[in-house]
Amino acid sequence: MNKAPLITAAKVTGTLQLVITWSTGETLNCNLATTVHRHAAFAPFVDPAIFSQVAVEEWGHGLDWPGGLDMGADRLYQLCREQAGLFSAADFDGWMQKNQLSLSSAAEALGMTRRMIAHYRSGSRPIPKTVRLACIGWETLKAA
After folding, report:
1. How far, in Å, CA of 90 to CA of 110, rounded?
2. Continuous segment of H or E residues that includes residue 10
3. What is the pTM of this model?
4. Cβ neighbour number for residue 121 with a 10 Å cutoff
5. Is the distance from CB of 103 to CB of 121 less than 8 angstroms?
6. CA–centroid distance for 84 within its chain
7. pLDDT, the chain, mean
8. CATH 1.10.260.40 fits 89-143, yes or no
9. Minimal CA–CA distance to 131: which of 73, 100, 78, 89?
């Protein structure tokens, strides 16, 4: 099984905003305003001088800031995809549960391999928009 996506680059693009490049080849925007305002631990990010010092963790497993502040790649990837309106692993798993589909039955329903369904469900591979559309189409046909 493939590893979860790693961060290969990150750049500050605005107030509490980043553009992050991933090992999957994706480049996604990330707005951290909601996260920063919900969690007191990230309050220092409000200072642009601190936020602008973001660095990719040595092995790409997250982002680091001065003072020991960090955010993990798994959560950032999920947040980036959600903000981009893309299907997340949690969304895909929810679709499978809602429709009472096993890995094998989901693979059959979508015309994919069981292995790819497992990758999408675990989040180890990004879920293409076409897969989301296939899920919607499958539900529509099932309801008809």
Report:
1. 17
2. strand 7-14
3. 0.74
4. 18
5. yes
6. 9
7. 93
8. yes
9. 89
| Long-range contacts at 91-98 (CB < 8 A, ≥ 24 apart) | 91/127, 91/132, 92/120, 92/121, 92/127, 92/131, 92/135, 93/121, 95/135, 95/139, 96/121
Amino acid at 108: E
Q: Is residue 49 within 8 Å of 43, Cβ to Cβ? A: no
The answer to whether 132 touches 140, Cβ cutoff 8 Å, is: no
- Pair of tokens at residue 126: 């990004």
* Average pLDDT by stretches of 10, the chain with 144 residues: 80 97 94 94 94 96 94 92 87 96 97 96 86 95 91
Say how far apart CA 61 and CA 132 lie, in whole Å. 27
- Amino acid sitting at position 29: N
Q: Which two tokens stand for residue 33?
A: 């305003």
Domain ranges of the chain: 7-83, 89-143
Which DSSP state fits 52?
T
The residue type found at 84 is A
Sign of the alpha-carbon dihedral angle for 29, 17, 85, 103: positive
Any idea which architecture 7-83 has in CATH?
A: 2-Layer Sandwich (3.30)
- The candidate with the shortest Cα–Cα distance to 92, out of 76, 72, 78, is 78
DSSP state of 3: P
